[in-house]
Amino acid sequence: MSKPATYADAGVNIDAANRATERIKELARTTFNARTLSEIGSFGGMFDGAFPLMHQPVLVASADGVGTKLKIAFATGVHNTVGRDLVNHCVNDILVQGARPLFFLDYFATGQLSPDTTASVIEGITNGCRENGCVLLGGETAEMPGFYAEGEYDIAGFIVGIVDREKIIDGKTIAAGDVVLGLPSVGLHTNGYSLARKLFFDDAGHSPEKDLDELGQTIGEALLQPHASYLPALEPLLDSGIIKGLAHITGGGLLENIPRILPEGTAVEIKRGSWPVLPIFHLMQRLGNIEEPEMFRAFNMGIGMVIVCAADDISRIQNSNSDCYRIGRVTEGERVVSVVD
Predict the structure, then answer these.
(1) Is residue 173 part of a domain?
(2) What CATH number is associated with residue 118?
(3) Is the pLDDT reported for residue 5 higher than 80?
(4) Residue 266 pLDDT class (50, 70, 90 cuts)
(5) Is 307 among the domain residues?
(6) Predicted confidence (pLDDT) at residue 291 exceeds the cutoff of 60
(7) Both 57 and 205 in a single domain?
(8) Could you give the C-alpha distances from 96 to 1, 66, 115, 309, 324, in angstroms and in order?
């Protein structure tokens, strides 16, 4: 008589999944607040939806991932930072409309579940949630044998935030003569990694452990620099009315993200050299002999968030953010961005 088949025979370890879930519950509870009405493990997460201090509360939602930055985590064995990157990316995406985060959901999928690796990733997510005042309300951990290479996984994040309708930031009042400010990035954030990996590992033949003087650290460390959250920098200004537009500089760089917030009849000129470009971008440009327009489309070039305001309000914003550079101006045009001297 043949041996009875089990789920484990197909590569799914329910016991390992249960151990991972218990650890996730512990981590998620550290993000809970008084509005959290359910535990991790419920079929759905519940969150108190009463906002009596707002006239017209508007929910703002977004979903994203961290792309092939995960390949750097796999290569270095560092798994407790990409989750934080994921949260910060999503926070920034709703921040551009003036929304503050309420709760976050994650999706973690792998071929063979490792409770330690899973816990490390979720640790990064919970760190990001706590830093942004955001509840990790629930998520999904999926074990799918044969779907991912050994030791690899994918993560995605889903965020919901809130803004009072009268305080939505939508770029509609942006006009020629306004000023473009930039908040610095820490590194590549979560975009451009397919090209970065090609340049460093395929073309130059380096390993993630290679220490480069120009970077002051290993390539792996440089590529794992965090995706910054701009909520702490911008939250004090969200209700002031002086921010006309915000653009999160992700895939597409400055050239393709700024036009997303420009009204018809306006354009932007970015002044070359008006902020310190991080050494990693100069290095990659040399390694690949990359032309400037391609650099500005593939990478953030050291600017992670763009602020558009009236010229009279520059000092108020810079007083709140010492690392805030005046990088350009709004002109008349057809929703394009150009880099000028």
Answers:
(1) no
(2) 3.30.1330.10
(3) no
(4) very high
(5) yes
(6) yes
(7) no
(8) 63, 19, 35, 13, 16
List, in order, residues 6 or more apart from 205 with CB less than 8 Å away.
Answer: none
Give the residues across from 139 on adjacent strands: 106
Interval 213-232 mean pLDDT: 97
Q: What is the mean pLDDT of residues 174-178?
A: 98
**Does the structure show a pLDDT above 90 at 333?**
yes
Query: Does 216 share its domain with 238?
Result: yes
Cα atoms found within 13 Å of the Cα of residue 134, Cβ hemisphere only: 35
- Residue 244 shares a structural domain with residue 113: no
Q: Tokens 């969200």 label which residue? A: 238
The pLDDT score that the predictor gives to residue 192 is: 96
Q: How many domains does the chain have?
A: 2
Radius of gyration of the chain measured on its C-alpha atoms: 22
Same domain, 153 and 184: no
Indicate whether 217 and 144 sit together in one domain.
no
Spell 174-204 as b/e; 16+ CB within 10 A means b.
beeebbbbbbbbebbbbbbbebbbebbbeee
Q: Which residue among 134, 167, 200 closes a domain?
A: 167
- Both tokens assigned to 287: 């390694």
Assign residue 187 the CATH number of its domain.
3.90.650.10
pLDDT digits (tens, 9 = 90+) for 129-162: 999 999 999 999 999 999 999 999 999 999 999 9
What is the residue whose two structure tokens read 């810079």? 318
Structural domain that includes position 143: 10-167
What are the strands of the beta sheet with 100-110, ordered from one edge? Answer: 57-65, 153-164, 100-110, 135-143
Pairing of strands 266-271, 135-143: unpaired
